[in-house]
Amino acid sequence: MSYRQALFVNLVFNEEDEPAEVVILEGQPYYVILDGDFRRHVEASHVDLQVMAQIREQILSQRELVTEGILQMMGQDDLFTKALVDTSIEHLDDRLLEQGIPEEARAWLGMLGFKVIVNHHGDVVRLDMPSQEIPLDE
């Protein structure tokens, strides 16, 4: 599958908090990272795959809690629905690459404080994600 779209449009910023523009060159998406007066073009896949790996790691580290939360939001708690949710979590990367993130969802993520901070090479240096305190059982 060729990489056709940048997943985190309007959510990628340089270390000076300047937004990265997205351009398409020869059919491939690039984030344009500002480096002073220089505009560095970094393949969107380079940034997006790093972000997805970090998100996946966080989701999998809290898999039971994430699954339970999704089931509660759905109002379902049967074994079949749990298996579907587990499968969806397992294939999250594939779905995101195939379908992308809808513009409304990206806007919502931005309003909640989701932000990808990259250096001028496109390496993720920080990922700001909305957090929710998880009550600990005592």
How would you describe the overall organization of this protein?
The N and C termini lie far apart (47 Å). The strands form 2 sheets. This protein has a 3-stranded mixed sheet with strand order 1-5-6, with helices on one face. A 3-stranded antiparallel sheet has the order 2-3-4. The longest helix has 18 residues, at 44-61. It has helices at 44-61, 63-74, 79-90, 92-99, 103-112; strands at residues 12-14, 21-25, 28-35, 38-43, 115-118, 124-128. The chain has one domain (12-128). The protein is α+β, with helices and mostly antiparallel strands and 138 residues long. The protein is built from 5 helices and 6 strands. Residues 133-138 have low confidence and may be disordered. The chain is elongated and about 55 Å long. Helix 2 (63-74) packs across helix 3.
